[in-house]
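Researcher: Here's the sequence for the chain we discussed earlier.
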Amino acid sequence: MAQHFKRIRQRLMLVTGALLIAVAALAALPAPKAGATGCHFYNYTANAGGFAEGSDFVFYTGQQVVPSTSSCHDINLNSMYDTDSGLYICTQVRVRFYPSSGGNYANSWKLMCQSYAPFVVASNVGNGTHYRLEFKNYIMAGQAFD
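Model: Thanks. This is the structure I predict for it:
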C-alpha cells in the first residue's frame, strides 16, 4: 500500500512540475497585439485629386480624422485595388498629415501589396489626427481603419 501512495505522489509531483513549467512558459510570451477591436473602419477611393511629383502622379483620398474613440493608434489598409483594372496590385502609399498648427507633411512611401494586408502605413497616430492617403500612379480603393 505504501508503494502505491508513493507512485501516486511521484506522479502528482511530476504533473504539478509540468504544469508549473507550462504556466511559466506562457507568462514569458509577449502579450498578443491588439487587433482591429475598437478601430474606425471606412472605405476609401483615391479620387479626390492628384498632382505630379517628379515623373509620378500622386492620387489622394479625401481628408480623414481619427475618431476620439479609436483604440488603433495606427493607420492601416485592410484592402486595396486599382479602380481602373479592378486588380489587387502592388503600389506605393504614404500618409499626409494635417496638424492643427497648420501646414502638412507626409511620411515616406511604402510599397504595399494586397497580400500584405492588413498593413500599417503610419504608426503611433493620435486620436483627432487629420490625414489623407496618397498613392503613386494608381487610383486605389479599398478599406482602411484607424
